[in-house]
Write a structure and sequence with these properties.
OB fold (Dihydrolipoamide Acetyltransferase, E2P); 8-stranded antiparallel β-sheet
């Protein structure tokens, strides 16, 4: 009984952390991002955080095009979670990447730090190839302006062509 009391007392002294993300409109997502890159994931490396209390992953993205800003031909992005050896740190709501993923990422950085994704998973748009046209399609698409709730199966969530998505990013940036 005494051991349980001591263990609970020690655990209460440890700081707790959580990933909390504020829902962003598409305009806010564009406005808060310093860069929006369309690219392909070429490497994902996980490492211990500086304080060794968690794991983060460094995602290497070869830029195909920038829809906003420009940070060069290759961008390294930090995301929470990952695996180091047998230790796995899964963060609910944090995006996961594998080599070969084609994505559009909304990025921000504070000072010289490694960039992070704006709005965590909100700033990750997957790119797929349209079976009919063979062109790139961005999934999920931009929701209609003013939409506050998006229902599963909503027809407005259809994929957008990459050029249409790029135009939506430009319009949202100009609106701010």
């Amino acid at each position: 009984m005494r051991a349980i009391f001591v263990a609970v007392f020690i655990l209460l002294g440890l700081p707790l952390s959580a990933l909390t993300v504020k829902p962003l409109s598409f305009e806010e997502l564009v406005g808060e991002s310093a860069a929006v890159v369309h690219g392909r994931v070429t490497d994902v490396r996980s490492q211990w955080t500086a304080d060794r209390r968690g794991i983060e992953s460094l995602v290497v993205v070869d830029a195909i095009d920038y829809l906003k800003g420009s940070w060069g031909g290759q961008v390294i992005v930090r995301v929470p979670g990952g695996q180091v050896g047998t230790f796995v740190n899964l963060i609910p709501g944090a995006p996961r990447f594998v080599e070969g993923d084609r994505v559009v990422l909304f990025l921000k950085a504070d000072g010289p730090a490694v960039p992070v994704i704006t709005g965590t998973s909100q700033g990750v748009y997957r790119v797929a190839i349209d079976q009919r046209s063979g062109g790139p399609m961005v999934v999920p698409p931009v929701t209609e302006p003013g939409a506050s709730v998006t229902a599963r199966g909503d027809l407005s969530r259809r994929p957008l062509s990459l050029p249409a998505f790029a135009e939506a990013v430009r319009r949202a940036g100009a609106a701010r």
